Each structure stands twice: as C-alpha cells, then as structure tokens.
Amino acid sequence: MGSPARPRLRRKEARPGELLSAALDTFREKGFAATRMDDIAARAGVSKGTIYLYYPSKEAVFEAMVRANLLPNIERMEAAIADEERSSADRLRLLVTAFGEIAGDARLVAVPKLVLAEAGNFPEMARFYRHEVIGRALSLVSGVLEAGMAHGEFRRLDAALTARLFLAPVIVAALWQTTFVPVEDAPVPPADLLRLHLDLFLRSIAADASGGAP
Amino acid sequence: MGSPARPRLRRKEARPGELLSAALDTFREKGFAATRMDDIAARAGVSKGTIYLYYPSKEAVFEAMVRANLLPNIERMEAAIADEERSSADRLRLLVTAFGEIAGDARLVAVPKLVLAEAGNFPEMARFYRHEVIGRALSLVSGVLEAGMAHGEFRRLDAALTARLFLAPVIVAALWQTTFVPVEDAPVPPADLLRLHLDLFLRSIAADASGGAP
Amino acid sequence: MGSPARPRLRRKEARPGELLSAALDTFREKGFAATRMDDIAARAGVSKGTIYLYYPSKEAVFEAMVRANLLPNIERMEAAIADEERSSADRLRLLVTAFGEIAGDARLVAVPKLVLAEAGNFPEMARFYRHEVIGRALSLVSGVLEAGMAHGEFRRLDAALTARLFLAPVIVAALWQTTFVPVEDAPVPPADLLRLHLDLFLRSIAADASGGAP
Amino acid sequence: MGSPARPRLRRKEARPGELLSAALDTFREKGFAATRMDDIAARAGVSKGTIYLYYPSKEAVFEAMVRANLLPNIERMEAAIADEERSSADRLRLLVTAFGEIAGDARLVAVPKLVLAEAGNFPEMARFYRHEVIGRALSLVSGVLEAGMAHGEFRRLDAALTARLFLAPVIVAALWQTTFVPVEDAPVPPADLLRLHLDLFLRSIAADASGGAP
DNA sequence: AATGAATGAGTGTTCATTCAT
DNA sequence: CATGAATGAACACTCATTCAT
C-alpha cells in the first residue's frame, strides 16, 4: 500500500525481460506481421517509444524474443536426461515425458512455430534454431540411441535418422496443440499419443525380440 | 473467325487458376503478410486491379489458393491406396511412398505450412484444412490399420492414435523440407527417412512378433 | 457545368509538374525539414500516397524540384545575352537586368536559397548546382568580360575573379529579397541597387579612365 | 573550503557557453532541423536533460546560440575601424580585411548562414540579426563612405546603397566558403577576391579621377 | 545541479482497395 | 474484362520534452 503505482522510471534491468515476454504473447496471438509495436508496448505496460530504448526495430524484438526462449527449451531438454543411472530405454521414456511437457506449454511451443512461419524472412534465425535447439535435441536423442545400441539394448540402426523418427511425433504434437486445438472437436490427449509412441518406438528398435537372430 | 484463340482476352476461364498459382508461389516465398497484391499481379502477368475482378480481398485470394490446393493433396493420397488387392502392410508402404512424394513437392507442401502459420488469423481455414485434408488422411490411414487388425496382420491398437504416429514423420519431413533445407548443411534424404520409418512402424505394429515373419 | 470536378484519375503526365510546383511553394515557406508530405500533397490537391507514385521519397521530391528549376534559371540567363550586336558594356547591362528580374522572382530565388540551406545534407545537389547554374553564370559573365578586354573596352583583369564581383550584388540582392524583406522596415528597391552596381562596376573596369569618358 | 575547484559540478557558470558552443558546431554540421538534442548534449559532454536546465526548448538553444555569436561579429567589425587617424580609403581597406577574416572563420560564418536558412521559421531572429548585425555593419560602412564624401575623397553617391555594394562580395565570399568549398574543384582564395574587390570599389567611388569637378 | 529512462505526438512510407476510363 | 492512377488508413520509427531519482 505504500506506493501502488509509479508512472515513470522503473527498473531498467527488468525491462528487456518484460518486453520480450509481452512480445512473445503478442506474436503468438497474431504472428509477426500482424503484431503492432503498440500491442507489445501496451501489453508490457510501457509506451511505444520505450521499446526502442532496448531494441532498434521490430525485427530485433522478434529475434531477441526467440533467442531468449531458446535457452529454457534447451535446458529443459538437457536436464531431462541428466540422470546417468538409467537404462537407455528409461532415458528415452524420460525424454518423451520431458518433451511432452514442453509440447504442452503453449507459450514455449509458440516459439518454434513462429520460427517455422518466419523462417523465410529470418533465415539467420532459422539457422540458429536449427543448430542450437533442434540440433542439440537430435544429438541428445541419438546419443541415447547409440548408447543403447552399444549396450545391446537396441538394434543397430542409423542413429541420426532414428532420432528424427523419435522426435517427429513430439514435434507434431506440439504444433498440433498450437494450431488445431482451438479448432478441434475432439482433441486427442498428447500424453496418450506420446505413451503409445514410446511403446511402439521401443518395440521397433528393441534388440531382436526373442533371443535375437537365429 | 470461329477460331478459339482471341488476342485480347486470354482464356478467361484460366485466369483464376493462373492467379492462384502466382499467389501460391508468392505466398510461399514471403508468407501471407509480406506478400503484396502487386507481387501476385506481376507474377501472374496482370494488373493489380484484375485480381479484384476474381477475388474480393487478399484474404480471399489466400483462402481460394489454399482451397484449390486441397484437392490435389487429397486425390494423390486417395489414389495411393485405391488398389484393393494388396495386403495392409503393402498399402501402408504405398501410402508412405505417396506421402513422401507429396512431401517432396515443395509447392504442395507450402500450403499446409502456410495454413499452419496463419491458423491464428484464419481459424475457419484451419478448421477446414483440419477436416478436409488432415482428417481425410487420418481416416485413410486408420482405415488401413483397422483392416490390418481385422485381418490379424497388425496388433490391436488404438487406430486413431496409431494413424497419427504413422503420419507424424511424413509431416515433419514435409515441414523440414520447406523450412530448414535452404539453411541446412547436410540435408537428410527424405526417402531414407521414410523407408526407415516404414520399417520401424511395421515392426512395431506387427501382430505377435514370434510368428510375424513370413 | 458539364463536369466540374473529377475526383480520380487525372493526366498522369501533368502530375509530376504539379507536384514539384506544390513542393517548391511548400519548401520555400517552411524549408525542407519542416515541410510535411501532407503539406505538399494538400497543396497539389492529391493524397499523400500519390506523391509516392512519382517520387520514392521526400528527398527525391526535393531533388527533382531543384533540378526542375535549374533549367529556367539557366535559360533565362543565357537568353539574356544572346544578342551579339551589342558592346560588352551593354551586354553586362543586359545581364544585370536579366539577373535582377530573376532575383525579383521570389519563387525562382527560393531554389538557390534552399540549395544553400541544405547543401550540407545534399552535397551531390550542391555540387550539381555549383556547376550547372553558378558555373554557367560565371562563364557567361567572364566570357563577356574577356571579350570586352580583348576589344579594349575593359582593363586587363582576372576575369574569373571579376565575374564573381560582378555577380555578388545580384546574389546578395536575391537572398535579401527572400530573407529579410518580410522583416524589413524600409526595403531598398533592388533595381536601384543594381543600377548603381552596374554604374560603379563599369567605371571600375573601364579601360584607361582618361579616354573613357564620353 | 574556499578553493575554487569543485569536483562534482564543473563550473556551472561555464555551462551555457559550452552548450552553445556544442550547439553551434552541431547546427552548422546538420542544420537546425536535423540536429537532435542528443547530438548537442553528447558533444557538450552532458546529458540531454541538462540542456533543459538552461534553455527551455531547442528553439531557445538556437536563438541563444545565434545571439551569443552576434557580439563577436559586431565587435570585430567595430574594432576594425576604431582608428580615427586614417583616410577613408584606408579605413575601407581595414574593413575589407576585417570582414575577410570573419568570412574565413567557418564557425563564425555558420551563424549568418543558419539565420538565412531559418529566417522563415524564426522571423524574430531574422529581424534581430538584420538590425543588430547587418544594420550595424551597413552603418559602419556608410559612415566611412559619408566621411570620405565629405572630405572629397569619394564621389557623392547614395551611401546606403553603396555600403550594400561594398559588403556584397564579402557576404558572398562568406557564404561560398561554408557552402561550396567542400564541393569545389578549384577554390578561389577569398583574399585574392577581396583584394581585387577593394581595388575596383575604390576606383569606382574615387572622386573624379583626372582633376575632379571643375 | 544533473541524470537518463520514459513518454507520446508527429511523420515518412507502405499497400490493400477503389473506380474512371 | 482489364487497367493503373489514386486513395487513405495504418504502422514503424523518431525525438523533443518531462520528471523521479
């Protein structure tokens, strides 16, 4: 109750974060082009000019916003398999769960979707995303797969390709959430889908089921 | 005098198609917002005003373009399993091949990607696409799956979920092509990916592993 | 009464001229920076967007306007001494009269004044003006001077410097008109000034005073 | 405690002068409109807000800057003919030299040029300049001319008009320096021009050359 | 006195849409 | 049918000015 509303001059350090958060929400509602700087400013509770104190252009805001949301994505992924004790199959299970959580976080998933949509107009950003997010996720998965193959848990397969197949349903589920759910009659629970995926996937890569090759 | 070719008015019936073709190419290069009516007109070789003789707005052009590209997608899919003689596994193989061809056709794949990108701004179109393209594809696949289950070829699984898992790598491959390939160092051949997918998928749904091998 | 006002679509060919005329008047009232595109458009009786059909930017309008007003300046000057019959002194007299007329035309004089004011921001334009207008005027005058020297009418002097001295009062009179007259208590008639200038100037360059007097 | 140097506030009395000096340099580089308060502040080594402690607006800064540069102009001029002993011709010679020096001082000459350029937007300032600088210079010259006429050194002429003719080459030389020199191929040395000017001018106003009036 | 973060009115430019020809 | 000149609403970005600290 001491000082409820201060009109001017707030913490300069917190500003960029607030702006990018507002930017994310606005971009994800309207897309890049349909978002006006005024929208972002209003949502962040500042004036339009203030944005330009921190970012030189709308594109710069977009890029900074994407970049700021890369790290959480990556960290959550990598944290997901930090546990070294488990079997490779268990680690894949953990990964599916972790990715499933990410895929269920609408704000987080909006970022790759925006990257997808704007890749043509922001090639540099697409490259960055490709390498720093997707590339790392693929490495993560193929690392687990290769370990599993080495241990004899999994069949010998092309790890790079298989990693892609492992991730595909997660990616589709994520995009699905942000694209068709508001329009869907009978949404499929992503958890069910991913549980089945894990089951089928493990079965398909399992080292020769009954006793191996004769 | 009865000759068909008239110098002034080029086939007026062909106009809408030419416009939509030009629209598709422009939208896929720049996205919806960054495409100017002038761009489309120039590419179609007409004046800007002419577009408005056929479509009342830029949004209408976009929607018509999407709609016009629904049918080819659907038809190619449905043609892919017209052959009733084959086993369910063979029909899935055919489907993967067909989808793989679609996914390799950059112009065709651009359409779902645009729908994805603009779903927030064109909810009606998203709904339409969800039902008329994706819905049909899912039905197609789950039909085959159910037949295979009924015949004992496949295990009993939730056909709706499994159909999604069947399609996921195809979708991801398609999006990948249009998004990251211009930015990719070492592109993965989609055909390799889909071949492996089919292999793993069939293995994972095969009825009772023990007796499954022919 | 047949068709008093046509709202749209007028002669495309006349437009650039109308626009530049409106631009000149607005620039001369407010200067380059304080002139808004809306001002020019309103004065030309078109909408702001129309200007951009003909010129890509405000700077381009400015440059085109300056360029369009070069020719009249130059032509009036050069026409002024087309007559080959006269003595060099008479030709200088004609030049002073001609320059005096130009200097009295407020719209015409506004152009060099704007060039002067914006020379720092439009160096290319300054260079152009220096060469194509001022340079030609100087050549004109020094040509007459050299002819007069060759004929023995004038003393031997540095023609380039002397030409500058001949033009200086004309230039000052011109700038004076556009700068201080709206602020002046007792304006000096430029004609009186230039008449005296001619008298003093001819006297100062006359060949040998002794025989020069009639 | 009585020591003059205080670390925090640098001589607060010197501030306005420093600001105006920075303002002059910035205005003369970019003109009034294109100069930003930030530019001036940066050049003066203070923050933007500080300027507003001394001047209420950008226009006020401009006007103060012009006003602050009046005095040096005037004083140098008036000092130039303080010497009462000399002949009128010598005093004109001194004036030309003095004016020539002023005209060669790019910073000083920038001021009248800015006044010229902004006269339309700052009429009050134009009036002030007209009276306090130009008016005094004209009085100075016409005073000398009248004295010379009274002494029989010079012919009887309209002193007001003749004074203008005396100053015109100086003014043109000054403007030339600030406008076209950065753009010039072969600059004319102002000293040469003014020397010739003085020579011709004195000759043109000299009391009747051979024997004078009968 | 000095700062510099914040403001918001102002303006150049774009572009979907209209319509006289 | 077709054109393309014209429109005007919309928006990104700027910058003089304010004011809490």
Overview of this protein structure:
Four copies of one chain form a homotetramer. Chain A is mostly helical. The radius of gyration of chain A is 21 Å and the shape is elongated. Residues 1-6 and 210-214 of chain A have low confidence and may be disordered. Chain A is built from nine helices and no strands. In chain A, 71% of the residues lie in helices and 0% in strands. The longest helix of chain A has 28 residues, at 123-150. In chain A, helix 1 runs antiparallel to helix 2, helix 1 crosses helix 6 (106-118) and helix 2 crosses helix 3. Chain A has two domains: 12-57, Homeodomain-like (Arc Repressor Mutant, subunit A, Orthogonal Bundle), CATH 1.10.10.60; 70-205, Orthogonal Bundle (Tetracycline Repressor, domain 2). Chain A has helices at 15-34, 37-44, 48-54, 58-80, 88-104, 106-118, 123-150, 159-179, 190-205. Chains A and B meet through helix 1, helix 6, helix 7, helix 8 and helix 9 of A and helix 1, helix 7, helix 8, helix 9 and helix 10 of B. The first copy, chain A, binds a DNA duplex (21 and 21 nucleotides) through residues 6-10, 12, 15, 36-38, 46-50, 52-53, 56-58.
